[in-house]
């Protein structure tokens, strides 16, 4: 029996390389002429008293300069390393890109890129930068403090303690080696970092029991079959006895947008 068109489309979608990455996005000039054009647009703006970054945001946010936003190249960096060139797909994407150019940037600013990876950019596309192109399907920006404040705090944990524990988990996930948000494992962890508050509550509780978060790893789940499911395992070591307790979450990473299969629960090595 031949496969229907819908089935073929689903198989094709699964074969695409999805990206779910945490990092920072910045505009770059593809040519000298675009850079000079931005300088002229800046000269027409009321920029007295503004910082350079505030001026850039103001110029790009002005709808009269939307043609410039389309001409710029948008580079997504992870841990300071240019990793992707982002390709917007519609006019609303341009608004999201402009919003990511914060007028008052801080080191704790984070952008989340969700999209589909394509081929490497040709050298002439972005002034010699050769990294994969990513078709942008979602981009949202936040400040880490805002994320921490949005996470429900356990009643037996103080605000300062919970914030410190949550930030430790978040940055540990961001700094995992080679986390470019393109493998199933890294997509799952990045999804948990911004979508599942249970990992922060569990870490805060482990600190209360004199434990520390010693490792985070992701393994293929034994439930994988038609769907691709992974287990994210969090290990907590007791600081005095060195006894290890593990908890895990199951995440479905079959398609572009990961989602939770089971909430955090005890994990037992088999």
Question: What can you tell me about this protein's structure?
Answer:
The protein is an alpha+beta fold and 270 residues long. It has two domains: 16-143, OB fold (Dihydrolipoamide Acetyltransferase, E2P), CATH 2.40.50; 151-270, no CATH class. Helix content is 36%, strand content 32%. The chain has nine helices and nine strands. The protein has helices at residues 5-15, 32-44, 52-61, 66-71, 91-100, 144-150, 159-174, 184-195, 198-208; strands at residues 17-28, 73-78, 81-87, 109-120, 132-143, 211-220, 229-238, 244-252, 259-266. The strands form two sheets. It has a five-stranded mixed β-barrel. It has a four-stranded antiparallel sheet with strand order 6-7-8-9.
Largest sheet: 5 strands, mixed, barrel
What is the CATH top level name of the largest domain?
Answer: Mainly Beta
* Residue runs with pLDDT of under 50 for 5 or more positions: 1-13
CATH level-two architecture of the largest domain: Beta Barrel
Which structural class matches the secondary elements? Answer: alpha+beta
Percentage of helical residues? Answer: 25-40%
- Proportion of β residues? 25-35%
Compute the number of structural domains: 2
Number of helices: 9
What general outline do the C-alpha atoms trace?
A: globular
Order of helices and strands: HEHHHEEHEEHHHHEEEE
Please count the beta strands (DSSP E, at least 2 residues each). 9
Radius of gyration: 21 Å
**How do the strands line up in the largest sheet?**
1-2-3-5-4
Average pLDDT level: 90
